[in-house]
Amino acid sequence: MALTPFHVAIPVRDLEESRQFYHNVLNCRQGRSSDCWVDFDLYGHQLVIHQDASIGRDGRLRLHHNSVDTHAVPVPHIGVVLEMDDWEALASRLKRKGVKFVIEPYVRFKGQAGEQATMFFYDPTGNALEFKAFKCIDSQLFATD
C-alpha cells in the first residue's frame, strides 16, 4: 500500500504568530484559511492550526514527558519522518533561525535497529514537534531488533 498523507489539527493561542512560525521557520506552504484556522503543507501532510481562545493564561499548552534514551520526550507531539539529508538541512535552518530545542538534534539508539536522528521543539503555543530521520526508512522505521 502506498503511504498516504496524514491530517492533524492542533490548537494555537495566536493564529498570526503561529502562521508566521509554520510559514517562515518551518517553510510550510500555506493552503486554505479562514479567520480562525490555517492549512499548511507539512512535508506533504496536512497540518491545520486552529485558534483556541481557551488556552491557559500563559498561552502555553500543558504537556507530559516520558523518558526515551535518557531524554524527556514531550507527549503528545506530532512529527514527520524525513530523509536524512532533509532532516540535516532542517536542523541547520532551525539553528540559524534561533529555534530553542527541547531535545537538540542528535542520533539516538546508536547501533540498534531503531537508530534515528531526532529533534524536538515547540511551536509558539507549546505544541511539541518532532522531526526524525533514519539511514534507511523502509527497513528501520518499524524495526524491533
Automatic annotation (TrEMBL):
Domain named VOC: residues: 4-134
Record Pfam families: Glyoxalase (PF00903)
PROSITE patterns assigned to the protein according to its UniProt record, in alphabetical order: VOC
InterPro entries in the record: Glyas_Bleomycin-R_OHBP_Dase, Glyas_Fos-R_dOase_dom, VOC_core
SUPFAM superfamilies tied to this protein: Glyoxalase/Bleomycin resistance protein/Dihydroxybiphenyl dioxygenase (SSF54593)
CDD domains, sorted: VOC_like
Tree of life domain: Bacteria
Xref: Gene3D superfamilies: 2,3-Dihydroxybiphenyl 1,2-Dioxygenase, domain 1
PANTHER family: PTHR39434, VOC DOMAIN-CONTAINING PROTEIN
UniProt name for this protein: Glyoxalase
Species, as recorded: Veronia pacifica
